[in-house]
Amino acid sequence: MLQVRDLKTYLYLKRGVVKAVDGVSFDLASGETLGLIGESGSGKTMMGLSLLGLPPKPAGRIVAGSIKLDGRELVGLDEEVLSREVRGRQIAMISQDPMTSLNPVFTVGDQVAAPIRAHHLAGERSAIDMAVAELDRVRVPSARERAGDYPHQFSGGMRQRVVAAMAIACRPRLLIADEPTSALDVTIQVQFMDLIEKIQADTGAGILFITHDLGVAASLCHRIAVMYAGRIVEMAGVDRLYSDPQHPYTQGLLDSVPILGRRQKRLKSILGSPPDPLSPPGGCAFHPRCPHAMEVCRQQVPPTVAMSDGGHVACWLKVDSTA
Amino acid sequence: MARYITKRALQGLIAIFGALLIVFVAQRLSGDPVALMLPMDASEADFAAMREALGLDKPLLVQFAIFLGNALTGDFGQSYQWNAPAMGLLIDRLPATLELAMAGLFFAVLLAVPLGVFSAVHRGGWVDRSAKIFAMLGQAVPGFWIGLLLILFIAVELQWLPAYGRGTPAHLVLPAIALGWYPVAAMTRTLRSSMLDVLESDYVRMERAIGLPERTIIWRYALRNAAVPLVTMVGVYFANMLGGAFVIEVVFAWPGVGRTVVDAVFARDFPVVQAGVMLSAVVFVVMNLLVDLSYGFIDPRIRRG
What we know:
The complex is a heterodimer of chains A (about 325) and B (about 300). Chain A has helices at about 45-50, 80-85, 110-120, 125-135, 145, 155-170, 185-205, 215-220, 240-245, 250-255, 295-300, 315-320; strands at about 1-15, 15-30, 35, 60-70, 70-75, 90-95, 175-180, 205-210, 225-230, 230-235, 305, 310-315. Chain A is an alpha/beta fold. In chain A, the strands form 2 sheets. An 8-stranded mixed beta sheet of chain A has the order 6-7-8-3-9-10-12-11, with helices on both faces. In chain A, helix 4 (about 125-135) packs across helix 6. Chain A is globular, with a radius of gyration of 20 Å. Chain B has about 300 residues and is mainly alpha-helical. Chain B has 2 domains: about 1-70, no CATH class; about 85-305, Orthogonal Bundle (MetI-like fold). Chain B has 15 helices and no strands. Chain B is flat, with a radius of gyration of 24 Å. Classes of the chains: A alpha/beta (about 325), B mainly alpha (about 300). Chains A and B meet through helix 2, helix 3 and helix 6 of A and helix 9, helix 10 and helix 15 of B.
């Protein structure tokens, strides 16, 4: 359904150019959930915004690559066409912070009805009815009455449900969930993840689940892509990625997660800090922090090596072992 | 909300009381009115009799109580010039001032809203830059000078519109522009900056992400958020204009409250000046109360607060 090829989104700032997304490729099937994992600043949010054609203005721009949804090329589409035919209609997003993602001066019902009206799926009266149905679907209790309430009258978890209702109101083919649970309490997180699974079962949408939480990703995703400094360094099915990570960065990430019931003297952490986005290290961007770094890692960007299980990894270690 | 409004109303009453106190004290500080009213050769007995007639022989506190009582009934004494109740005189002029203030404000909002929104949406564009220069001019150049220029070019040179007086809608145009000049500048800048904040908010990004047309986002969803500081300004400027657009009314010979008060100042017609001060104070307090109320309509978070 979705094919992203060699996508590059750069931010042109006064201090220099940030290659936020630097040659990312992946496929996503309908009904599939792909996790996009990485530290803050790894470019995962920018990846999500690029799919919508909404890199932050005026600094951000998609400079190269291709995004195909059901065979249709989205890169280079006119802004108006994107907003009329793609955003909200075919691709939608659940954003990070439920406290700030809803317009404070309009009722929740109005806001959920807004995409339905904008995409002419219903007239004024029935748009509200449909909005109420969507609120009901995301399990907002007594949806009809609450549709007349304003965002500040809802809790964080309920607001995130409202945002989800807005996103799925027009049955998008692709749903981007950008850390939708990181602002929620743990118990509410679990409820919301159940909800996302229900939404997928109901609508058959493909989901790109952006997160830095390995646990959340493991429970929800079919496949996982690990992003570092604007590139995908490893992609694999959930089971293989967690049991047998190939990239040193993925290994480091997994080592730094505490495991319940296992005694550990001290959590391992990845040495060093994330690269400066304005001047990332040459070669493999991870080499300054990598315990296995070799001379070639400093010189050249590693190629992407396909694995036998259908995943792939971008690391010189794997090039040597397969050669 | 009810509690909030009650609180604001009480604060308003205190402000009005304060204004009354100032008027009362200023009246006593400005010299002996009896000396002004009696002829030069009046005797000591004449003075005493006059003082008694005016109640000026009573203790200050009693005088203040009488003053308050009269003020509550709108009685600020007789105008020396017109020999009519001072407050009544001003109330008669209020419709003319109201008309001018509404026209001036209408002109200001009509210009400031599209200018402010457009400047924010196309930040750094030519409209934004011209609006910035325009706003600087608006805030730096006094309204009366704009008024004089308008009279000189539009009324005298081109003879398109009347230069002074009140009557037809055409009479209203030039003074309204001169009066609205400063508010346009201030409102444009305020709306621009609040609009910029709103356009960068998460909810506007969300509205873009669900495919709302940019037009709808700006004029329906963003503007209402950005309008809150604008409403405050509209209220304050309207109160200012109602309390007497002194200079503009004088420049355009507009028969309103402001010009009447200015005339009264020159004629040392104290009751009218005092009534004018009190009228301004009351209008200001009432307008601020209305502004507070209007927040509730715009922003539901305040309604429940």
